[in-house]
Amino acid sequence: MKGSSRRLIRAVFLAGIAAGGALLLLFIYLPFSPEEIETWDSSPVLLDNRGEPFFAALSKSSEWSIPIPLSEMGKWIPLAAVEVEDRRFRDHMGIDLISVFRALLQNIRSGRVVSGASTITSQLIRLSHPRPRTIQTKLIEFAAAVKAEKVFSKDRILELYLNRAPFGGNIRGVQAAALMYFSKSAAELSLAEAALLVGMLKGPSLYRPDRNPEMSRGRRDFTLSLLAERGIITGLQFHRAMKELLPKERRSLPSKAWHFALSILDENREGGMIQTTLDTRVQELLERTLAASLAALPAEITAAGIVMENKTGAILAYCGNGRLGTELPGSWVDCARSPRSPGSALKPFAYLAAFERGTHTPSTLMADTPLAFSGNAPRNFDMTYRGPVPLRTALADSLNVPAVRILRAAGPELVLDLLRNAGFRTLSKPTGYYGDSLILGGGEVTLLQMAEAYCMLANLGIRRSPVFLRDKNLPERRITSEGAAFLIADILKDTGRLLPVQEKRIEREKGWFAFKTGTSYGYRDAWTAAYNPKFTVIIWMGDPSGKPHGELVGIHAAAPVIVEILRSLPETGWYEPPPGVETRAVCALSGAPPSPVCPSTRTEYALAGISS
C-alpha cells in the first residue's frame, strides 16, 4: 500500500516536471494574438433614437451574440461564474496549480482523463481557438492563458469569457442568453436565473432548460447550493431562488420595423450596437394607423409609409408593408422602395419651377380648358373643366390641364432636372420619353424618393437625404429658393380640401400642414404627401402586383392616415414668409393688379418683382 502511494506520488511529480518543461517551451515560443481573443462575430443590434434595442440579427456565424461590458452583466452572473468555474480565478496567473496537481493525481489513479483543471482564462483560450481535446492542447491552452493574464486584466478576461461562452444552440454570451431564455437583459436577471445560466457553462446543450428541464434544474440547484455553502447568499435567498420556475422555451429577440432594419443591414452586417434614427413611438403610430386603414380594404391592397424629420433628414418611422407578417401574397415586399406611378403627386414641382423662373405667381390665371395631348385630351379627375382659374386653385385642386400648361411654360427639361435634383433618381429617361405625362404619373418613383423630395419642400428648398443612422451627417444642398418653396407650402396648406376625410376642419391653432394627393392611372396607386416645418409624412397604398382597385383614390385611401398621424405628432408652427416674398393686393377676379375696372381685391403672396 505504502509502495503504491510512493509510485503514485513519483508519477505525479514526474508528470508535473514534464508538463512544466513543456509549458515553459510553449510559453517562450507559442505565438499569441490578443486580437484573436477579443474578436469574434457578434450580432448586429439596432437601437432606436432613445438607445433601446428594437431589432437584432444573427451574426455572420449564424449565432446570437451580443457582447456587453462586465459592468452590465449584473451582480450575480460574474460572481457565480467565478465561484463555480474557477474559485481561485483572482489569485492565479492563468493556471491553478492546486487544481492541476489534483487533476494529475485523479487522472493517473483512474488511468484516463477525468479532470482537466481548466481555469476561466484557459477556457477563454479554448473558445477563441478551438482545438482537438488532447493533453498537448491542454498544455497549449495553459501557456496561452499565462500570456493572456499578462495582457488582460482579470475583469477583462472574465468579461470576454462570459461574452464568448456558449449557452445552447446558437446562443453565445450571457446577454443573448438572458434575452432568449428570460426576455430580459443580463443585468436584470434574478439570482435563480443567473444561477441557471452559470450552470449551463459546464454543458450548454446538456443543461438547456427548454430541452432538458430536469437536468437544468438540477444544475441550477447545485449552483445555488454551492453559493449558499460558501456564504455568498443567505438561506432566505437560497430558498426563494429554489422556488423559481424554469423557462420552458427560447424567446425571440426583438424584430420591430423589419423593413427599416433591413435597409440598414443590407449595407452594414457588422456586429455590435448600431444607433439608428428610428423613433419606436412614431413607428408604432404609423404601423397602427396603417393597419386600421387596411382593415376596411381588400386583402390585396397594402400600404407603406415614412415619417421624416425635416431638420436632420432622420427617418423616424418606416413601414415598407402594412401587411407584413400576414402571409398574404406580396406581404414581404418593401413597397417603400418599389417604383410606382406617383399620379399627380409631382405636380407641385412643376409649379415650383414656374415660380423659380419668375413667369408665374399664385394669382396668375390658368386656363382649365381642353388641351391637345398627344392625340388625347387630358381631363380633370372629376371629368369637368373650370375655365380660367388662379394658379393657386389649379394646384390646390390638382387640375390636370393647368398642370400641363405650367409644365410647358416652365420647360419640361427644367422640371425634369428639378425632379431629379429633388431626389427622384428613377426618372432617368429623356424628357421626350415622359412628355406631358411627366407630372401626371407617367414616370415611376419610390416612396423613399417622395419623402426626400417633399422634405426638400418642407425645408424651403434645401434637400437633405434620408438618414437611417444617428450621428451620420449627409451633405445638404439648396435646390430652389426659399421664396418659391414657401409659395408651394402656402398653396398646399389649404386643409379645407380634407373635408371629405375628416369630421371637422383642422384649426390653425392645431398646426397647419401642406399636403398633396396622387392617384395613378387605373386606380393602381394612392398617395398622400404632407409636411409642416418639422415633419414630412408620405403614405402610399396599392397592390404590389400592380392590379387596379377602385378603392385606391389618394384623398380617400391615403389621406386619412396622414391626418391621423399628423394630429398625433407634436404640434408645430407654420412658416413665416422668407425674405423676397411679399404680400400684395390683386384683383379677386383676374389676379392682376387692382384697377378701376376691378374694385374687388384680395391679398396674395408673390415673389418680389414678379407680376402675374
> How would a textbook summarize the main sheet?
5 strands, antiparallel
Morphology call: elongated
Going by helix content, strand content and strand pairing, the class is alpha+beta
CATH homologous superfamily title of the largest domain? DD-peptidase/beta-lactamase superfamily
Counting DSSP E segments of at least 2 residues, the number of strands comes to 16
Q: Helix count?
A: 22
Strand content: 5-15%
CATH architecture of the largest domain: 3-Layer(aba) Sandwich
Q: Look at the structure and give the CATH class of the largest domain.
A: Alpha Beta
State the share of residues found in helices, binned by percent: 25-40%
Mean pLDDT rating: 88
Order of strands, main sheet, comes to 7-6-14-13-12
* Unreliable sequence segments: none
Global Rg: 35 Å
- Oligomeric form: single chain
First and last CA, distance: 119 Å
Question: What is the CATH topology assignment of the largest domain?
Answer: Beta-lactamase
Number of domains: 2
